[in-house]
Write a structure and sequence with these properties.
Elements: E1 4-10, H1 15-28, E2 69-72, E3 78-80, E4 89-91, E5 98-99, H2 101-105, E6 119-121, E7 128-130, E8 135-137, E9 140-142, E10 144-149, H3 156-166, E11 170-176
Antiparallel strand pairs: 1-10, 1-11, 2-10, 3-9, 4-5, 4-8, 6-7
The structure holds zinc ion.
The site of zinc ion (ZN) has 8 residues, from loops.
Length: about 180
Amino acid sequence: MSDHAEVLVCRSDSPYRAAARAIAHLVERQIIEPMPTDCVLAALGHRPGPRANDVVEEPLVADLAVNGLEVRLPHGVELFAPAQGEPPWVSCPRCKHALEGEMLFEHLMPHDPFKPAPMVACPSCKDERAIEEWTAHGSAFGNLAFFFWNWSPLKESFIAEMKEYCGAPMALLHEHI
Ligand SMILES: [Zn+2]
């Protein structure tokens, strides 16, 4: 069976604190269970709590093996992109020139987290900025992501609340594997 996820990608100055704060709120509101279990793919996740249906457009399917909230905290900002569908691309915030394919991926290689991110010059207008400052399309740069596995679409109001808990911008992606 294939699995899908509603993914909230967040870019926070303190991602660990933002994640802890969001989880605490979700547990308190009984949207997720407090104890992580093996309810996501190859990781630990929080199963839906008794009030999970308050935050989704349609009631969750009961008793799925994969139905938890998985929190990902990468080392630094990375580009989150769905595994299937259109490949991600970015554009220059100044002149909208697109970077895609190899041109993009070579800049997504991990860099020394103790050094400033390397600058990427726009081939068109020559403006320079770190790749994570380019505008992402079909993807999102972030250092904290919430994967709601096999949840139905999240309510707008809930996404706004998550943004408040994390105190940082939040982008919504749809993962399907
Ligand atoms: Zn440009």
